[in-house]
Amino acid sequence: MSGRRSRGSSDLGRRRHTKQEKPRILIVTEGLNTEPQYFKGLLHELRATGVEVYRLHVEGIGRDPVRVVKKALVISSEAPAGDEYEQVWCVVDVDDHETLQTALSAARRASINVAVSNPCFEVWLLWHFTDHRSHVNQVTLKRKLRDFGVHGKNLPADFPYAEYTSAMTRAEACGPSDDFQLPANPSSSVGRLTRMLTR
Question: Where are the chain's structural domains?
């Protein structure tokens, strides 16, 4: 009896060690609330539908794009040996940031991926509900999102994360974006990050 139990335990141990863990992804966002909530909610949605997801570390720092890139460099450099991040992403807005081009250049030099939204992350959220292809500002985006029950910086419990595929299609329809150039309005390369997370 004990021999059987022991053999079962060692088999279980071998299976546990041979199981491949998903690699870690670091996402550092400019926003403190909305963006981290979105990515955590998206991962919850993906797990619920049986998609194997990456181990995700999301950090919102509420700073300008240059500080976002610098923070990503610091966090990724402090990862313990053997548990490094496979990819590092910064999620930033065009807004009125004068430092965006500097941040994009720094990210390129450091091989950091950047997901840029123009004018802001809210355009990516809007594409979960409806299509929008004409030039838009932050005030209009927030008003449109209110029509769908999204108020302020916190996403509602019933946010339609499952519509991420629609958002990707709508983002692509606005044209390809180069992560290291200032994108057109409206646009968002968050779809590229989302596609990577759902592979």
Answer: 22-197
